[in-house]
Amino acid sequence: MLGGRPYDTLLEPGQKLSEDQEGDPVDRGRFQRLVGKIIYLSHSRPDIAIAVSIMSQFMHAPRNSHLEAVMRILRYLKSSPRKGLYFSKHDHLSVEAFTDTDWAGSVTDRRSTFGYCTFVDGN
């Protein structure tokens, strides 16, 4: 991946992945290890959390299109190496929460996608 071209976006705009994507099956173990490592990284990089969540839905039968999407996430990470969470200390105690929903946006099962972000003490 060192010679790969970096991307500014995580997934192609408007791209909808599903279980019955056309393409050849890929090595499931390799795909699972790769997505598992990115899941661990998403704790400090919330900008990739939704894309990683989408990719983790295809762990049992990954296709070539799913692997290409994971590689795109890696190329995005290459383009933004210094982004991440910074936790600082504040004198006030406050909790803020924000949510967003995509109603019936999944092409696989027509379920809604829900995301949230919470801030404790401004972090």
Write a concise keyword list for the protein shown above.
123 residues; alpha+beta; 2 domains; 3 helices
Summarize the topology.
Blueprint: H1 28-41, H2 49-56, H3 64-79, E1 95-102, E2 113-120
Antiparallel strand pairs: 1-2
Helix pairs in contact: 1-2
Summed up:
The protein is α+β, with helices and mostly antiparallel strands and 123 residues long. The protein folds into two domains: 1-84, no CATH class; 86-123, no CATH class. The protein has three helices and two strands, in the order αααββ.
Q: What is the quaternary state of this protein?
A: single chain
The largest sheet is: 2 strands, antiparallel
| Structural class label | alpha+beta
**Helicity level, as a percent range?**
25-40%
Shape field: globular
Order of strands across the biggest sheet?
Answer: 1-2
By DSSP, the count of extended strands is 2
Radius of gyration, in angstroms, nearest whole number: 16 Å
Which spans have pLDDT < 50 for at least 5 consecutive residues? none
| Number of structural units classed as domains | 2
